[in-house]
Specification:
It is a single chain. By secondary structure, the chain is mainly β. Helices cover about 5% and strands about 35% of the residues. A three-stranded antiparallel beta sheet has the order 1-9-4, with no helix packed on it.
């Protein structure tokens, strides 16, 4: 036994604790990490950023049309989320992409072509991502 408060350099670890409101305690709930993560992802998910390379779209356009890419969420959201496309993406023959038609399972990222030819858009770097929020 030591005095953990005798220095600001001391570390104090507390695990396996469940805080509850009120005077009656319920049984301890220990959920696996993956289950806890999935429960959190019902409210919020960021796709891209550090792992930005998979979100790439290429489309041969005949004129001014929308090139679309569906993004499926890792976990079904608790409600219809708001979806924002963040950052300046690398584009060719189109404008910056935007999010459309979000639902609880997926959203569509669309960039409108500026003329006939190949349309491509993808995250330029780690500052480009899709932000999905279904928070309260």
């Amino acid at each position: 036994q030591v005095n953990c408060l005798d220095s600001t350099n001391n570390n104090f670890y507390l695990t396996g604790v469940q805080l509850e409101l009120g005077s009656a305690a319920t049984s301890f709930e220990h959920r696996p990490y993956q289950q806890e993560l999935a429960l959190c992802q019902r409210y919020y998910e960021r796709i891209g950023g550090v792992q930005y390379s998979p979100y790439f779209h290429s489309y041969l356009a005949a004129g001014s049309v929308g090139a679309a890419h569906n993004i499926y969420y890792k976990v079904r959201k608790r409600a219809t989320p708001t979806v924002d496309v963040i950052g300046t993406w690398t584009v060719n023959n189109c404008g910056q992409p935007d999010a459309y038609y979000p639902n609880q399972d997926l959203c569509c990222i669309i960039a409108v072509s500026t003329g006939a030819g190949m349309v491509t858009f993808y995250p330029a770097d780690e500052t480009c991502y899709v932000d999905i929020s279904s928070e309260l």
